[in-house]
């Protein structure tokens, strides 16, 4: 692949790419996933069950299956791929953008489900009370809804982020292993191990482990403070 | 405030339930809509607040049109000058009392107004507390202050006491009355509690199955329900079906009573309050009955009597007045001035059990079997 020799200094680019993909994925999933979660939490539509099942699919499908279909859709002959190429002039599969799109699909349930649970336990009357007090929908969402669902929101962010950090199969299928573009840390580690370069694999793994641990520590700490501050 | 009347005429269809309300509220005072749970009271409030859209109809408050389905107008809650106190108060759990009260106010002058409302509702000491640190009564006052601070044209109260225990209710009723008495705005409250309604309402509407069946000054509505369905909704327990009207005499399987004057031909029921029935000696006119059960209710004693056909009548007597023991026979005097004549109240005439329009001869030829004749 890269032909990197054992003595070469460790390239931390994969870690950087991973963090970028994960952060972007979480942001996009919050923007697109929150409305889905809101709808699922409030609808009485008979299609709810179907939509719920679809959003949960990435949970149960083997990453290779998901990756295979994503590759078909995002490839040069796929609908999404053609649309992306007509828009930007670049192919979608095996690109950084493709990686983000695939990650969004892969991590969708990890963001939507905690949000849906949070929206379901939200006191709708408080939202309606805000409306009768003259607050526009946007203000109500920011000042009334978000503070009440912040624990669910935090869970969604952390799970979405962590799940994207650890993805492997889907990325291998649609992103390939292009250093500096689509080579994420999990794949880099795998490659280092394959080439018996345990020292580098160890450093990357330890870095990821430490980072994940710190994030979780921070989250549980914040959650605990919120919990003792306010019983909501 | 220059307010004219509030007019509500709205219909809303739900599976297994239809709301069809036509109400004119006076421009001040407390109107209570009384109804059992599921009768559509909360839906009515939600329609007025703009939280639900009527299928058809219009809602006008003063000169403002809040909803008019013919003109395709249905203003969102934000554009209706309405204050709503929800059943469980719906305080914002993450905000202090002061922030809750100030939520609906513009930034400029907010602090002074909040301080004013906290003072008016005796909440100064709780200003920096959070809702979960408040008692039920305090929560209710915060909800009231929050709704009133925006100076609504109409204040809506949804079962404001249902979240509280009985002792607190009595106390808070006084408090609410005190606050509401000072208001310029009209108040519309819904409840299933008769006592609350009687205590707080200037006018009362009785809601049965999605319709307001009777509306009027509280005293009048409590004194004379006029139709049997309203009587049932208002807790009248002693209802005697009328099968035959013979000039001034009304008959049923339970017996007969001669009234002071001829009843309306659509009279289908007699109603009498338990406190107006009186046990008397055999020489006096009355209904023969037997005592089925005696229940002590503190200062009063409830005597359940059974007429010959099985119809039950409740009697309320002072606790220290002797009454015949269970199983013994007695005669009940029914004071004529306390008898209320009720029509069936259904929109379909065919539902009447029997009508005097059948004619007297009919009645004479085939009297009901179990009529016990009075001496």
Q: How would you describe this protein?
A:
The complex is a heterodimer of chains A (232) and B (375). Chain A is an all-alpha fold and 232 residues long. Chain A has helices at residues 13-42, 48-60, 63-74, 79-88, 96-121, 124-132, 137-148, 150-165, 169-174, 185-194, 198-229. Chain A has eleven helices and no strands. Chain B has 375 residues and is an alpha+beta fold. Chain B is built from nine helices and 22 strands. Chain B has a six-stranded mixed sheet, with helices on both faces. Chain B has a five-stranded antiparallel sheet with strand order 2-1-4-5-6, covered by helices on one side. A five-stranded antiparallel sheet of chain B has the order 17-21-18-19-20, with no helix packed on it. In chain B, a hairpin with a 2-residue loop joins strand 4 (56-61) and strand 5. The N and C termini of chain B lie far apart (63 Å). Chain A binds chain B through residues 123, 125-126, 128-136, 143-144, 147-148, 230-232, and chain B through 49-51, 76-78, 80, 82-84, 86, 88, 90-94, 103-104, 130, 132, 146-147, 150.
Which terms would index this structure?
heterodimer, A: 232 residues, mainly alpha, disordered N terminus, B: 375 residues, alpha+beta, six-stranded mixed β-sheet, 22 strands
Write the layout of secondary structure elements.
The complex is a heterodimer of chains A (232) and B (375).
Chain A: H1 13-42, H2 48-60, H3 63-74, H4 79-88, H5 96-121, H6 124-132, H7 137-148, H8 150-165, H9 169-174, H10 185-194, H11 198-229
Chain B: E1 6-14, E2 17-25, E3 30-35, H1 41-49, E4 56-61, E5 64-68, E6 73-74, E7 82-85, H2 97-102, H3 110-120, H4 136-149, E8 154-158, H5 166-181, E9 187-191, H6 194-200, E10 203-208, E11 211-217, H7 218-223, H8 228-233, E12 239-241, E13 244-246, E14 249-252, E15 255-258, E16 267-271, E17 278-280, E18 287-297, E19 300-306, E20 312-318, E21 329-333, E22 340-343, H9 360-365
Parallel strand pairs in B: 3-9, 3-10, 7-8, 8-9
Antiparallel strand pairs in B: 1-2, 1-4, 4-5, 5-6, 10-11, 12-16, 13-14, 14-15, 16-22, 17-21, 18-19, 18-21, 19-20
Helix pairs in contact in B: 3-4
């Amino acid at each position: 692949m890269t032909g990197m020799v054992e003595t070469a200094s460790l390239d931390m680019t994969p870690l950087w790419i991973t963090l970028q993909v994960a952060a972007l994925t979480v942001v996009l999933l919050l923007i697109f996933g929150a409305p889905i979660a809101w709808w699922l939490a409030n609808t009485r539509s008979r299609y709810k069950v179907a939509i719920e099942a679809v959003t949960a699919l990435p949970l149960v499908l083997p990453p290779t299956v998901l990756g295979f279909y994503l590759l078909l859709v995002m490839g040069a002959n796929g609908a999404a791929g053609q649309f992306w190429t007509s828009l930007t002039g670049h192919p979608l599969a095996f690109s950084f953008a493709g990686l983000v799109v695939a990650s969004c699909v892969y991590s969708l349930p990890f963001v939507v489900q905690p949000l849906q649970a949070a929206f379901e336990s939200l006191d709708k009357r408080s939202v309606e009370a805000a409306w009768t007090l003259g607050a526009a929908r946007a203000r109500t969402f920011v000042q009334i809804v978000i503070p009440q669902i912040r624990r669910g929101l935090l869970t969604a962010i952390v799970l979405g982020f962590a799940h994207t950090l650890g993805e492997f199969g889907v990325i291998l299928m649609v992103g390939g292993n292009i250093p500096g573009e689509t080579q994420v840390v999990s794949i880099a580690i795998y490659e280092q191990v394959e080439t018996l370069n345990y020292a580098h694999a160890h450093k990357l793994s330890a870095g990821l482990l430490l980072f994940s641990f710190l994030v979780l520590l921070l989250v549980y700490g914040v959650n605990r403070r919120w919990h003792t501050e306010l019983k909501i | 405030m220059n307010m004219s009347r509030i007019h509500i005429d709205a219909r809303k269809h739900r599976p297994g339930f239809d709301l069809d309300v036509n109400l004119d509220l006076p421009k001040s005072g407390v109107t209570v809509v009384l109804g059992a749970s599921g009768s559509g009271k909360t839906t009515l409030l939600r329609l007025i607040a703009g939280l639900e859209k009527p299928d058809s109809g219009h809602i006008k408050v003063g000169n403002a049109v809040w909803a008019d389905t013919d003109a395709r107008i249905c203003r969102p809650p934000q554009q209706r000058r309405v204050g709503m106190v929800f059943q469980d108060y719906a305080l914002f759990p993450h905000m202090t009392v002061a922030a809750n009260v100030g939520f609906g106010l513009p930034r400029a002058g907010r602090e002074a107004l909040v301080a004013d409302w906290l003072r008016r509702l005796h909440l100064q000491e709780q200003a920096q507390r959070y809702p979960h640190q408040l008692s039920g009564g305090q929560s209710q006052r915060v909800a009231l202050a929050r709704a009133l601070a925006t100076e609504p044209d109409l204040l809506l109260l949804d079962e404001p006491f249902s979240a509280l225990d009985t002792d607190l209710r009595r106390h808070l009723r006084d408090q609410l009355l005190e606050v509401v008495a000072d208001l310029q705005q009209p108040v519309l409250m819904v409840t299933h509690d008769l006592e609350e309604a009687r205590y707080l309402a200037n006018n009362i509407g009785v809601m049965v199955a999605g319709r307001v069946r009777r509306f009027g000054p509280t005293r009048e509505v409590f004194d004379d329900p006029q139709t049997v369905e309203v009587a049932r909704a208002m807790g009248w327990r002693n209802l005697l079906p009328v099968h035959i009207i013979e000039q001034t005499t009304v008959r049923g399987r339970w017996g007969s009573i001669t009234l002071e004057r001829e009843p309306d031909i659509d009279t289908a029921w007699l109603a009498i309050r338990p406190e107006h029935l009186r046990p008397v000696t055999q020489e006096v006119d009355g209904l023969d009955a037997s005592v089925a059960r005696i229940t002590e209710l503190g200062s009063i004693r409830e005597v359940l009597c059974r007429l010959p056909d099985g119809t039950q009548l409740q009697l309320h007597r002072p606790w220290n007045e002797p009454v015949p023991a269970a199983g013994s026979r007695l005669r009940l005097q029914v004071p004529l001035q306390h008898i209320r004549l009720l029509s069936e109240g259904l929109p379909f005439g065919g539902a009447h059990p029997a009508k005097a329009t059948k004619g007297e001869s009919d009645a004479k030829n085939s009297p009901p079997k179990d009529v016990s004749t009075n001496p």
